[in-house]
Amino acid sequence: MAREEYHALRRRQVAEAVERLVAAHGLDGVTVAKTAAEAGVSVGLVQHYFASKDDLLRYAYTQLTERTLARAIEQAEELDRHRSRIQQALAHALAERLPLDEPRRAEWRVAFAFATRAVDNPNLAAVRNHTEAQIRARLAQAISNGKKCGEVRNHTDPDTQASRLLAHLDGLALHTYLDPTALPASAALAALHDYLSGIFPGRCRAHD
Amino acid sequence: MAREEYHALRRRQVAEAVERLVAAHGLDGVTVAKTAAEAGVSVGLVQHYFASKDDLLRYAYTQLTERTLARAIEQAEELDRHRSRIQQALAHALAERLPLDEPRRAEWRVAFAFATRAVDNPNLAAVRNHTEAQIRARLAQAISNGKKCGEVRNHTDPDTQASRLLAHLDGLALHTYLDPTALPASAALAALHDYLSGIFPGRCRAHD
DNA sequence: TTGGTTCTAATATGGACGTATTGTCAACGC
DNA sequence: GCGTTGACAATACGTCCATATTAGAACCAA
User: Fold this and answer.
1) Element containing residue A102 per DSSP (H, E)
2) What pTM was estimated for this model as a whole?
3) A163–B contact, CB cutoff 8 A
4) Cβ–Cβ contacts within 10 Å for residue B54, how many?
5) What pLDDT, in 10s, does the model give residues A95-145?
6) In angstroms, how far is D27 C1' from A121 CA?
7) From B125, which residue of chain A is nearest by alpha-carbon distance?
């Protein structure tokens, strides 16, 4: 294995340990020593691969956002290949972001922990805003496509609706996460579908 | 001043110092020593009035939620007295929860910090869920009133819509808070109004 | 072989923090 | 008057943490 590959691999191993710790005990529960133990390495190794704890957290967060974004894109493209309605494709892709079951709940927990810390941490904020901008752009593109296709009304503004959709999604996710009795996962999913129906009231006139 | 009053006053003074610290430096920035300094008292005093740091935070959070809830209710009742449309009254009351300007941003920051910590802290979670339930109930009541009045469609389910409305609101607040460039405060407010228009499409047939 | 990086580990350091302990002083009941 | 209790302050204690330091092992170059 090339030296560089090895380097990247090690960093990923440690970053994954961070994720597990955040999922289990929150961001406050992450310490360098615990991370090293979780990854089965020494503190020195962690220090060798990361200049500081902040550096470590930033890397872990970047890793996480890139992975989830890639998965969402893949989801959307998969459904696109099957010529589903845009609304359907979005519903599936966005549902990935809802804490519907335990694995997704854990992922959301980690992503959210980082997002909130990003408020006071410009490094993390940069990572978050970059990813969010990508997602928003893709959503806007999807809505724009919907207009050409006839699923979306002509006077709909893609950028505005994309922002609102994302906010709505995260609001549902937040509430389901914080108090699942008040907003059960199924209710959140139903709300997402209804909201999407509001943006995509029509039928696609034709596929190609 | 009665013994008990004095006691309550002291506790409030300290809790207010906690709020200022959270607003300025986040929940992580709150230490017992800093709280004492901010309140202009000694560490011993804080210890005297609060059994533990957790106790202190719980009290501060309770204080905060009660105050904001009372303000929202007052807002709504004020507008009710002026016989505004229910939609208008809700719009005003709910806008209080959006980080539209610096003071509200600071308040939201504090409330949000506690809400997120509530995930790992059953004590704080109890405080949060209790308040949220009250708000949801009032929203549902407002929507229900809207049905009787003709502002709301007959097939609308008040509880469901109240939950979704609250989630939407918090999603907007969250996004505006985390990245005001992506979702400016004005856009969040506009989104809230549009969303409310969806629930309240009609006109009130009559007042009394 | 020698010498120098790179990788990994163990341990040291210094600071921050929550809380316990102790002391002081005033008010109050007896 | 005198002990007791409540309000407050100062400081001590023990823990945890990020990071610095030091040391050794592995590998490659000269």
Assistant:
1) helix A102-117
2) 0.90
3) yes
4) 12
5) 999 999 999 998 999 999 999 888 888 888 899 999 999 999 999 999 999
6) 39
7) A178
